[in-house]
Amino acid sequence: MRKRREYSSARAYGVLIHNDEVLLVQSSNPRYNPPLWWLPGGGIDFGETPTEALVREFDEETGIAVHKPVLVHADADVRTRPNGERVHTVRIIYTCEYFGGDLRHEAEGTTARAQWFSKDNAMKLNLAEYARDVLAMVMN
């Protein structure tokens, strides 16, 4: 019997509210119906700080430059993927400010599109659990 692989993944995500709208990204995984949305961000590369990862991931996934990150939350969970891998995900979550750039979608990656939503409409989406929890904390 093959041993299941277990690993940890550290990730940085950001809440960007600009002109009274929040920026979210949609999963590129077609198995989610309705589509799953979450906060821009992702894996922290080796040697990178969480805030460096945040800025890089925002640019990669949305085309938007952010600055002035402020730590608002950290959480972790363990999930088993369909292939049997167990992943311990640590999420470091910041609020950040708009610095510039034009909204665009990630060409090839874990997200298919980036979109601004009113706060009310954002909470009506099929949101990743961590994203829903953080938005409820930050937007109240």
Provide a concise account of the structure shown:
By secondary structure, the protein is α+β, with helices and mostly antiparallel strands.
Question: Can you describe this structure?
Answer:
With 140 residues, the protein is α+β, with helices and mostly antiparallel strands. It has a single domain, classed as Nucleoside Triphosphate Pyrophosphohydrolase. It contains 3 helices and 7 strands. It has helices spanning 50-62, 119-122, 129-138, and strands spanning 6-18, 21-27, 37-38, 41-43, 64-80, 86-101, 111-118. Strands 1, 2, 3, 4, 5, 6 and 7 form a 7-stranded mixed beta sheet that branches. The termini are far apart. The model has no long low-confidence stretch (mean pLDDT 94).
Using brief descriptors, characterize the structure shown.
7 strands, single chain, globular, alpha+beta, Nucleoside Triphosphate Pyrophosphohydrolase, seven-stranded mixed beta sheet, 3 helices, 140 residues
**How many helix segments?**
3
Shape: globular
Task: Give the CATH superfamily.
Answer: Nucleoside Triphosphate Pyrophosphohydrolase
Instruction: Quickly give the structural class.
Output: alpha+beta
> Strand portion, in percent?
over 45%
CATH architecture: Alpha-Beta Complex
**CATH topology title:** Nucleoside Triphosphate Pyrophosphohydrolase
Number of domains: 1
| Helical residues, percent | 10-25%
Reported for the largest beta sheet, the result is: 7 strands, mixed
> Which consecutive residue ranges, at least 5 long each, have pLDDT under 50?
none
- Class in CATH? Alpha Beta
**What's the order of the H and E elements?**
EEEEHEEEHH
- How many DSSP E strands? 7
Distance between the termini: 49 Å
Alpha carbon gyration radius: 15 Å
